[in-house]
Amino acid sequence: MTIPQRAVPAAEILLIERRFDARPSVVFPLWAAPDRLAQWWGSPDFPIHSIQMDFHPGGKWRAVARSALGDDIAMFGVYREIVDDKRIVFTFAAGDTCETLVTVTLDDVNGTTRLGLHQTPFANQSEIEAHRQSWNEWLDRLESYLLRHHWNDH
């Protein structure tokens, strides 16, 4: 017997949309390899110092960020769906927080990438805002990484 999925209320969903001056074929690989992901995941206050990835559906990932005081925060999950240059779906948990599902979509819009990020469910607005702040910092770093490497020219 299949248990019906409950509809997730809008109050439990984080949505972010960003535009990058590079094609999805350039942006996608930056999510797919640990050495590249380490260049932009994390923040100046909590840089990522370790990433392991098995980048295929069913594969696990784990990243560890370290605070200036030396405290580690582990993030981990499982890849659910990967469509090259288009879509990545994975579970996300950090520390002892509840698991969420993250869906990243990459759409080519006139040679640029429209990235959509959808993450759910959250227990309250403060969790959503904390994740929104983190993702926006990370996506700012992704944009800087793209600009530094001039990958928008390819």
Automatic annotation (TrEMBL):
It holds the Pfam family AHSA1. InterPro entries: ASHA1/2-like_C, START-like_dom_sf. Signal peptide: none annotated. Residues 21-146 form the Activator of Hsp90 ATPase homologue 1/2-like C-terminal domain. It comes from the Bacteria. Belongs to the AHA1 family. This is SRPBCC domain-containing protein. It comes from Mycoplana ramosa.
